[in-house]
Amino acid sequence: MDNGRVFLRGAGAIFRNGVLFRNPVLVGALGLYPVAAAGFGMQNAAALSILFVFLALPSQLLLCLVGMLIPKWARPAAVLLVTAAFYLPAARAVQRLLPGSMESLGMAAALMACNSILYSRAEEYAPEHIFLAVGADALGCSAGFAAVICLVSALREFWLTGGVWSSGTPGSGIGAGLDLPFAGFLLAGLLAALVQWINIRRADRDPREV
Amino acid sequence: MMFAALLAVTAENLLFSGGLGFSRALRAARRPASAGVYALFVTFFSLCSALAGNWLAPRLSGSPWVLYPAALTAAAGVFYLAAAGLLRALAAGFYDRHARILAQAAANTVVLAVPFVQRMLRFSLAETVGYALGTGAAFFLAVLVLEEAMRVCSNPDMPRAFLGLPGVLVYVGILSMAFAGFFGKVF
Question: pLDDT digit string (tens) for A148-158?
Answer without folding.
Answer: 999 999 999 99
